[in-house]
Predict the 3D structure of the following.
Amino acid sequence: MRTAIVTGGSGGIGSAICRSLCAEGYNVAVCYNSGMDAAEDLVSSLRSKGYHAWTVHCDVTDEEQVVAAVDEVSAAGELAVAVNCSGVSHIAQIQDMSLLELEEIFSVNSSGTYLICREAAKHMIPNGFGRIVNISSMWGVTGGSCETAYSASKAAVIGLTKALAKELGPSGIAVNCVAPGVINTRMNSVFSEEVMQDLSEQTPLERIGTPEDVAEAVVYFCRASFVTGQVLCVDGGFSL
């Protein structure tokens, strides 16, 4: 049975991706760092539906933990899918951002993604097959005011995706990227109802996205056999 690892699996988008991959027939490792209760609840729900899922603790900024987590998932079956969904954000003007805050954002969003990709590739290359899907952001494509560090870290994910697609393509591994827009998740709960309504009105499809919208795009990339190095904006047209 082919397996999948989803980092940030206990979050809003991550949990939707885990549910969708289970429905696609994958054994799914719900990888979490701080959201243990949410991860365990998700796994319990998935198992109640007859799916094979389990939790894996991993701080993606810790190289040893990343190596151990990916090795564990691979030992459970052929590692076919790796989804990098771990992410942190910080809203501030650039003059108010410290170097430490910048490094913390890059360590999760960029370096963490890099480490998971590296370790997943080690297991996928001998199998001659793999799907890596990285979760960036529309701000990684267009840039977001007062989110310079976040935007830069997510732009790095896009660069990594394109480079890896070229490097790993000959080994049968497709690497793609989903760039969500405004999605109804805990990360966006810092915004007021008025702000969210305004963002909805700025979106051509006139609604805020759902985690399931993002999961649908991830599943597409897992299914596609002749698509690699692509960035799919799931933003309702916001970035047009």
Remarks:
- The radius of gyration is 17 Å.
- Residues 99-127 form the longest helix (29 residues).
